[in-house]
Amino acid sequence: MSLLRVHAEPASPRPVLVHAFAGFLDAGGGGRIAVTHMIEALPSRVIADFDIDLLYDYRGRRPRATFLSDHYGEIDLPQLQLHEVTDSQGQGFLVPNGPEPDLGWRTVRDTIIELVLRWDISLVVGMQGVPFPAPHTRPVQVTAHGNDSRLIAGRTPWVGDIEVPGSLAGLLELALTDKSRTSLGLVAHVPHYLAASDYPAAAVRLIEEFSATTGLTIPLDDVRASAEQADAEIERQVSSDPDNRKVVAALEEQFDGIVAARASGSESAADLPVATGDEIAAQVEQFLAELDR
Q1: How big is the chain by its Cα radius of gyration, in Å?
Q2: Which of 6-20, 27-41, 60-74, 241-255 shows the lowest per-residue confidence on average (mean pLDDT)?
Q3: DSSP of 99-140, one letter per residue?
Q4: Which residues pair with 4 in a beta bridge?
Q5: What is the DSSP letter of 197?
Q6: Is the pLDDT of residue 163 over 80?
Q7: What is the pTM of this model?
Q8: pLDDT grade for 94, boundaries at 50, 70 and 90
Q9: Deepest in the core among 31, 230, 258, 286, taking most CB within 10 A?
Q10: Would you say 254 and 133 are in contact if contact means Cβ atoms under 8 Å apart?
Q11: Cβ neighbours of residue 253 under 8 Å, at least 6 residues apart?
Q12: What pLDDT, in 10s, does the model give residues 11-30?
């Protein structure tokens, strides 16, 4: 616990913990927008702080600073804090918010596991977005993964076995499995041509899935309004270019074919033409490379 300064104990027994560590793969900012909305839209308080200086690579990810004519204004130093958020029905849950650590993954993992055991955290949920060959004109789909088959029952996988970049979230899921603690991952499929922009519709779907699983009540009016505004702007830009319209129309046809095949059970996800593991992995790698640039 040397990494963590705990200021207060959670008010609610056996709380849920939901995370979306910023800086890793999160197409459209789906996970980041979702957890930020939870913290800002509901009553919250900081109950613990991680010692960010032990975890963050300042030279690799230099914080933004302002220079005001002849002097520095401020530097936006990173923070990794643990919030207790209270839902609309008075139930508390925990939200770590901040960048994915560059260093000390094992130590951070062990620290979080210690909190899970100390506070008897009932469920750990991770959220993120991934770039996917899907059109923005169709509902956002979600892939679920985890170590409790009851939480992902009835879902047909969209991809088979693939190799993806490692993450603290993945390391944490493995550790929770070793400790016989329940974890769930929710992954929003973000149209690959929108992956580098904020896409609030992905956050809406992630929060809806989170609420349906946990029973926690999260107001969605503000983030839905943001999603509607973003969708209107996307549609305006797509409609203004004939080539864009052709690309989206082709994606719609392919995507509708996938959905129909999945519904009928006539084909497995791995056999479908635009949802192979190699293509998804390539989208992930390209997205991460663009972030590095």
Answers
A1: 20
A2: 241-255
A3: BPPSS-HHHHHHHHHHHHHHTT--EEEEEEEEEES--TTSPP
A4: 50
A5: S
A6: yes
A7: 0.87
A8: very high
A9: 31
A10: yes
A11: none
A12: 999 999 999 998 778 999 99
User: Can you tell me the distance from the alpha carbon of 233 to that of 235, in angstroms, rounded to the nearest whole number?
Assistant: 5
170 burial type by CB count under 10 A (0-12 exposed, 13-18 middle, 19+ buried)? middle
% of the chain surpassing 70 pLDDT? 90
d(CA 181, CA 190): 29
Task: DSSP letter for 3, please.
Answer: T
Confidence category of residue 275, pLDDT binned at 50, 70, 90: very low
- Residue 221, class by beta-carbon neighbours within 10 Å (0-12 exposed, 13-18 middle, 19+ buried)? exposed
Instruction: Report the candidate in 20, 32, 18 with the shortest Cα–Cα distance to residue 199.
Output: 32
**128: its two tokens:** 């993120």
Q: Of the given ranges (33-47, 61-75, 245-259, 277-291), which has the lowest mean pLDDT?
A: 277-291
Contact predicate 190/202, CB 8 Å: yes
The encoded tokens of residue 93 equal 């849950």
Q: Is 155 helix (H, G, I), strand (E, B) or coil?
A: coil
Task: Indicate the pairing of strand 123-132 with strand 183-191.
Answer: parallel
Task: Please state, in angstroms and as integers, the Cα–Cα distance from residue 142 to each residue in 7, 48, 115, 181, 186, following that order.
Answer: 35, 31, 28, 23, 7
Q: Would you state the structure tokens that stand for residue 129, as one six-digit string?
A: 């977005």
Whether the CA torsion 165, 289, 97, 6 is positive or negative: it is: positive
Query: Hey, which residues does 94 pair with through a beta bridge?
Result: 17, 84
For residues 140 and 98, what is the distance between their CA atoms, to the nearest angstrom?
Answer: 25
Q: Rounded distance, CA 81 to CA 97, Å?
A: 5
